[in-house]
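Forum: Protein Structure Q&A
Topic: Joint prediction for protein chains with partners

I've read a bunch of threads here and the consensus seems to be that you should model interacting components together rather than docking separate models afterwards. I'd like to see that in practice. Below is the full input, 549 residues plus whatever partners are listed. Could one of the regulars post the assembled result?
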Amino acid sequence: MDAINELYQEVILDHNKNPRNYGKPEAYTNFAEGFNPLCGDRVEIYLNLDNDIIKDIKFEGKGCAISKSSASIMTTLLKGKTIQDAKEIYSEFLEIVMHGCDGLEVKDEDLEVFCGVKDFPTRVKCATLGWHTFEEALKDQKV
Amino acid sequence: MSFPVDLIRKDFPILTRKMSGKPLIYLDNAATTQKPQIMIDTIVDFYSNYYANIHRSVYEFSQIATEQYETARTIIKEFINAETTEEIVFTRGATEGINLIANTYGKKFLKKGDEVLVTEMEHHSNIVPWQELAKEIGIILRYIPMNDNGELVLDNIDDLINEKTKIVSIVHVSNSLGTVLPIKMLFDKAKKVGAICVLDASQSIQHLNIDVQEIGCDFLVFSGHKIYGPTGIGVLYGKSNLLENIPPYQTGGDMIRSVSFERTIYADVPQKFEAGTQHIEGAIALGASIRYIHNIGLEKIFAYEHELLNYATNKMKEIPEVTIIGTAKNKASVISFMLEDIHPHDVGTILDKFGIAVRTGQHCTEPVMKHFNIPATTRASFAFYNTIDEINVFINGIKEVIETFK
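Posted by a regular:
Agreed with the consensus. Here's the joint model:
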């Protein structure tokens, strides 16, 4: 059961129960919706960009503990960052969920909770849904 | 006499395997079923001892292969009590069967404004082909609604089955809820208005005795892999006069009587619908599986599976966090459920670590998920090789999931 406890750590369960930066903001500059038809998970990402600064990031959605907590942790990490910094954090996150943390120097401690995801290949898509959607939101040119 | 489940388990080699380091507990039988040794041996025998193409050559192996292939057709004809073997067409599965009906019968005989009636609990494969027909020729797709137990609401049935209704295409057992539908009553009504009756037997063929003449359906489809046979093979049953009067679905070799550049004469049924080299070993091995099931007896299988269903249902009701989705009076051995707000994918991942295989998701029935306003369910579905002990492990697994999320 170690792998299970590694996957469902306190932090994950906490973000699942009390997601941060949750809800649709009144005003936003960028938006994208992500959907995983395999499991029915859905996430909406709202960004408030000021030039290349992510002034605010919020999300809404329905999904499993992994996808929800991953989106929640993402918002706490990316809020206030530049787009360039955010993309670097995203790369680090992807490296972690695809290949784990062995031999990797994890810069953002908050990402360490995802070290166990690689042992659950069917769940990697859950973990990346919010982040992929964030990337899509950056491309949103409506404003 | 109690059901000989210990003996039966010996017929299924995969049941001695471990998954995630634990003895496999396979509770995903509504998605696909495991295979008896006799089916596996049949495939090996074909490829090792008499492999050849069918319906073509005069040499011995080709004749044996053809005989075996046609014997499978006869086994299936007897299993569902069709009138003749010509009424049994091999397909790739239930999905292809419904597509075939929509694209041949549907396109030839239906016109704008005609109605096709399904139910709210259909699998997507009995919704989408009709929607395509709606786009193409303007038929109207209607459905019989259901209540929160997962039973059909029949209050407006005489409006839903009316003189415009040309096809009533209905699932026999719901794959996501387990409900057994009152097909005889619906088909009797359908026939009074002259509609064609299509039965999707994908989830019933492995549980219930089916007699197509008694049910009175015009077409019936099922997939081989759900009745302990191989993937990629399925069956379309169609009444002779219907099959003879609809155009072929695919054209090419093996489905013709004569071809010249001026014109082609099609073969008689069922070859008219079996274009190209067929899934020969699939058909032969499906025959072996069905013979195996028939020898055990579907009444005994159904009775035992019902014991499992009732035992699991009662155990699950003792867990306050469990909500069972689909509580119809008449059910096959399928239990869809929710564990409060714990997402089914998290449930499935944790159960996997106990060696338990369940399905999580929408089960290709999005309208059902929408009805209950849920994103997905966890589904346990039992076969006659499952045991009470396995259900006990499953129940403990559910309690572990709840504990993890506390």
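The longest helix of chain A spans residues 83-99.
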